Amino acid sequence: MPTQEQMKSALQAYVDGFNSGDPAAVTALFADDAVVVDPVGNPPMEGRAAIDEFYGNAVAAGAKLSLDAPIRGSHGDRAAMAFSVNMPGMRIRVIDVMTFNDDGKIVRMEAHWGLDDIEQ
Amino acid sequence: MPTQEQMKSALQAYVDGFNSGDPAAVTALFADDAVVVDPVGNPPMEGRAAIDEFYGNAVAAGAKLSLDAPIRGSHGDRAAMAFSVNMPGMRIRVIDVMTFNDDGKIVRMEAHWGLDDIEQ
């Protein structure tokens, strides 16, 4: 299991990758067979190709992330963060929960946000 | 499935129940067969008796909760919140994710916090 520090560093790198416009820095954090559920309640995206496409589009759209509070760890293989996705004319309030494998890669990402969490 | 508004109201009631020292107001939000994982990585607590004991002790210990950011919903049956647990001489930074049943009761609570998220 990765350390708390490793997991929190990965979540910070996820934020930084968006903010430097570098989708490869974001997708490199994921295992090849990872599952991304964004938002929770929609069908999951599975595997390298789907993840590369999803984050490529999100970063290209100009989404910038700002943490609303310090990143949290756990007593296990998960870390979580509350942040805002800032795009021109729109802000989405999100809580992501990430699960890691023993190699320190993200194997599951679940993003919690609803239509009521969008400010325009 | 409960509405976003119903789920967010339940999470606010959870915070308010702690802050008014009323454990019954907190435990009434849960289904009888709910599962509480606090923190993630420790064994789950299952069912009414375990949940009543857990929250009875937490409220009796004087834990007060303060939201760090607005409560998030989802596109499904989950809502999440980033908050701090404030006790005399200690603060724990937590992200809770709650899953609801069709009756609007919490069936699963997962609390994300690690030893590094405790400030003394």
From TrEMBL, chains A, B:
Residue ranges annotated for the SnoaL-like domain, each copy included: 12-109
Keywords annotated in UniProt: Isomerase
Gene3D superfamilies associated with the record: 3.10.450.50
EC number(s) stated in the UniProt entry for this protein: 5.3.3.1
The organism's place on the tree of life at top rank: Bacteria
InterPro entries assigned to the protein according to its UniProt record, in alphabetical order: NTF2-like_dom_sf (IPR032710), SnoaL-like (IPR037401)
Record has Transport as a keyword: no
GO-annotated molecular function: steroid Delta-isomerase activity
Protein name: Steroid delta-isomerase
Organism annotation: Actinomadura verrucosospora
